[in-house]
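Summary for the funding panel

The consortium committed to producing paired sequence-structure records for every protein in the target list. Below we show the first two records in order, beginning with the earlier of the two.
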Amino acid sequence: MFNGSPTTSINLIMPQLVGQVVIVTGASSGIGEATARRLVRAGAKVVISARRQDRLAAFAHELDPAGENVLSVAGDVTSEADRQQLVAATLAKFGRIDALVNNAGYGTRGPVEMVPVDLIRKNFETNIFSLIALTQLVLPAMRERGDGCIVNIGSVAGRIARPLSSIYDATKHALEALTDGLRGELKPFGVRVTLIRPGFIATEFIEAANTASSDVLANVGVYAPFYKGHQDKVKSLRSVAGVPEDIARLVEKALKSDNPAPRYSGPFHAKIFLFLKWILPNQTLAWFTQLKR
């Protein structure tokens, strides 16, 4: 696990990533892309996965033209066959899996009353059920080896739910509980589990959420005035938005740590919001998130 002399204090605290095999899902853009870049720079062997095959292949070639330390495996995380192929291809190429970064996910927007249950199921399928299923595939070997790391990409929304984002926020609430339970289950086997809570990050996320929810957002009915207020708040948040690298840095920190924190949050505004959640009464905090008509 450690490189260099066991008496070197920095290695005792921060195991190196050189040679470690890490799968990153949702790696064709945003946080996943930034994470893959950072891990490759740190010397890890990185397996990138996403649905957009052409974009993924080009990104893999950019990271490692020789194809020695980067493998791209296109696929849909909600497909059982694609998940199995991702794990099988990783083992065939590198022979082991040291870490899994569960980053793939998207948002559903709109008033709960107006969102078809099928869309709600689909969002949970991607953000929670598929994440669990992929994690189940990589855990046996980690557990038997007595080493490994699972990094789940959550959200500040997992602690602070917002109107018109209830479905997505609920998936991230679920991920909070899942991560905590999994951490306790796997600790006796030497497998580390941690959660990263991004705040507002400038990525394609909002545009993708709008596209996934386009039919709902086009027919919000009596919620139309509230939806406009929501749009105005989202635009105002862009001024404090972080960049994907802010989160990639936290992922690397978690993977290098022999004893990662249960949760990491970033950028700075995320820590402020979570601190307010901790100290403010629920009614006061709710005032900040309500949409005024």
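The next record, for a separate protein in the list, is shown here:
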Amino acid sequence: MDLFHFCPVCGSADFIVNNEKSKRCLQCGFVYYLNPSAATVAVILNEKKELLVVRRAKNPAKGTLDLPGGFSDCDETSEEGVCREVMEETGLKVEKLEFLFSLPNLYMYSGLQIHTIDMFYLCHVKDTKKAKADDDAAELMWIPWNEIQPETFGLGSIRQGIEKLLTKKIIIK
């Protein structure tokens, strides 16, 4: 909140702390609340019950492991967002999805910490052999469930989500 010095509505510098979650403009009365951005995470398994993992092509955490996903766009549902992100990063079409859980996250972007709420979905796809890295994914790989190592994932919420999937045995029983 300290980085925002001017009212986004009228441009006034009289943009003051209203409470721990908001700032208020003394000129026009606008109140800005800092809320998390919506993000999605795809959990995709092939017929061998291997997990589809991507290597990040961009910062933050460039070069580390990740799961397909990203920010939801304006005028898009979370479900539409995860399907779009899977298509962009892997070329796979989601046929069916199931909401699993959500986790709060801090995502460093251009030197700014963005609060997100990461929604994890189990995504069912066909033709897993046609998966191809694209967009934010530098590489794709299928990792056997029993060989998944949470510490190899670069983003905190993804590591935490992988740990939850492994310890709760949410997917593989």
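Regarding this second record: The beta strands are 15-19, 22-25, 31-33, 37-44, 50-56, 65-66, 69-71, 94-109, 112-125, 137-144. The mean pLDDT is 93.
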